[in-house]
Design brief:
This protein has 491 residues and is mainly β.
């Protein structure tokens, strides 16, 4: 048996990624020089570290259960800490053998059954949902092909092409326009030049975005390159100016520029036609995590440096800097009119900013763990009334989603059916419904007006991303086990 620190580091890095500790994984990856290892990440299965630990635990259990005389001593299932403290296990066994063990169900002092000590409902592995809300398997199309976790997915804005990006160093385009129920997939391999030949980059695809008319797909990768693809899977351009992983990229509405954010602390506006760097902005003091266009030439960026910078093409300094968060800022989003900017952070707060003032308009504190992402409703208040107040949704590691009425700075609804961190939320095109995806493997669909659960579906892996198609009758989701699935909500 032999293994090196590179292999251990890679498995720890993957475990951090799969557990949702994205920024910890990034920091660990940099410090342990993951990018310089020769390990082909596409071949390493999900949950590899846990799998190998589990095997080690089983071996330790077997070892402890065999006495010095070769006789077998029955032992209870070991915990991971037990496995590294075999002497303590032996002492506990000896003390337990002196006391008769009576197995009883836990009962509270008022005669009601108490919850298990771990706080988890073990009555079944399925989520508790109301009658008739669960989406039947006949309405779900599971798309297999990725060889690693699928971090992101996005629908084409004009037809039912679903793009997905994975840790297997590929993006894929799934054609869901086919009424036969099967989905053709185009594999977009992310390769780099080595010695005059193209080889797989073996790096995660971290971000993707369709342009406004759905003709082009842009992807960002941990290999430091952004790439431009056609809908038939052809690589049109490779954008190489970042020095390190790209964390986010977005098309502007006009479709002539692409914006990206990277670990190199910079943001770049690219000319979509030529693929050249139009302007690079170096105003953050730490990795830039997210970007969002305000207009076709101005944008905001956020960073682990706890700051938000608003920049404009042609300006050599930020036109505004927002400070107030006390931990890294995970995501930023302009409202549909570009008047207000929402930000969310590991400091557990959600803040609303205006270009008219330096301090935040609202400091919304209700979540009790990190807030991973946010989304604005497209129309406001879950109605077809464009003048209704805008709603903001926030997804947190505290397992809840909150809906906020931003004008008053109040929380309208707290959505509490998830049991693990919520990584993604998305409003339907008409703003009436919200989809949420969590690491409890569930996608829930909620009524925005009432906050009630409308539909629920349990997949086979933790959900990283959810998204609606342009008609609002299908929801796509991507998961940690390499699956992508589409829920058909048509009656």
């Amino acid at each position: 048996m032999s293994f090196g620190s590179d292999e251990v580091n890679f498995l720890v890095y993957r475990y951090l990624q799969e557990s949702g500790f994205v920024h910890s994984a990034y920091t660990f990856g940099i410090e342990s020089h993951i990018s310089q290892s020769n390990i082909n990440g596409a071949l390493v299965p999900p949950a590899a570290l846990l799998s190998i630990i589990q095997k080690g635990l089983q071996y330790t259990e077997a070892e402890i259960s065999i006495g010095e005389d070769g006789s077998e001593k029955p032992i209870e299932s070991l915990s991971l800490i037990d496995a590294v403290l075999p002497d303590t296990v032996e002492q506990r066994k000896q003390s337990q053998s002196k006391v008769a063990q009576v197995k009883t169900e836990p009962v509270s002092t008022n005669g009601e059954e108490t919850a298990p000590a771990d706080g988890v409902n073990h009555s079944g592995d399925r989520m508790e949902v109301e009658e008739g809300l669960e989406i039947p398997s006949s309405k779900a199309t599971v798309l297999r092909g990725h060889e690693s976790e699928v971090f992101i997915c996005a629908w084409n804005p004009v037809n039912d092409l679903l793009a997905s990006g994975s840790g297997d160093s590929t993006a894929r385009i799934w054609n869901m326009n086919d009424t036969t129920g099967s989905a053709n997939q185009l594999v977009l391999r992310h390769c780099i030049q080595k010695g005059g030949t193209e080889v797989p980059s073996n790096k995660d695809v971290t971000s993707l975005d369709w342009n406004v008319d759905g003709k082009f797909l842009a992807t960002g990768s941990y290999d430091g390159y952004a790439r431009l693809w056609s809908t038939d899977g052809q690589l049109l351009n490779t954008l190489g100016q970042h020095k390190g992983p790209i964390f986010a990229l977005k098309w502007n509405k006009q479709g002539n520029y692409i914006l990206s954010a990277g670990v190199d602390k910079t943001t770049i506006i690219w000319d979509a036609t030529t693929g050249r760097c139009h302007q690079q902005f170096s105003f953050h003091s730490a990795p830039a995590l997210d970007v969002d266009w305000q207009t076709n030439t101005s944008f905001a960026s956020c960073s682990t440096d706890q700051c938000i910078q608003v920049c404009r093409l042609g300006c050599d300094r930020p036109i505004k800097t927002f400070q107030g968060h006390t931990n890294e800022v995970n995501a930023i989003k302009w409202d549909p009119q570009g008047n207000l900017l929402a930000s969310c952070s590991d400091d557990m707060t959600l803040k609303i900013w205006s270009m008219k003032q330096d301090h935040c308009v609202h400091d919304l504190q209700a979540h009790n763990k990190e807030i991973y992402t946010i989304k604005w409703s497209p129309t406001g208040a879950g109605t077809d009334n464009p003048n209704a107040p805008l709603i903001l949704a926030s997804a947190s590691f505290d397992s809840t989603v909150r809906l906020w009425e931003v004008e008053r700075g109040t929380c309208l609804h707290t959505l509490t059916k998830h049991q693990e961190p919520v990584y993604s939320v998305a409003f339907s095109p008409d703003g009436k419904y919200l989809a949420s995806g969590s690491f409890d493997k569930c996608v829930h669909i909620w009524n925005v007006n009432t906050g009630s659960l409308v539909h629920s579906y349990r997949g086979t892996g933790g959900i990283f991303e959810v998204c609606w198609n342009h008609r609002g009758d299908k929801v796509g989701a991507s998961a940690s086990d390499g699956s992508v699935f589409v829920l058909d909500l048509r009656k």
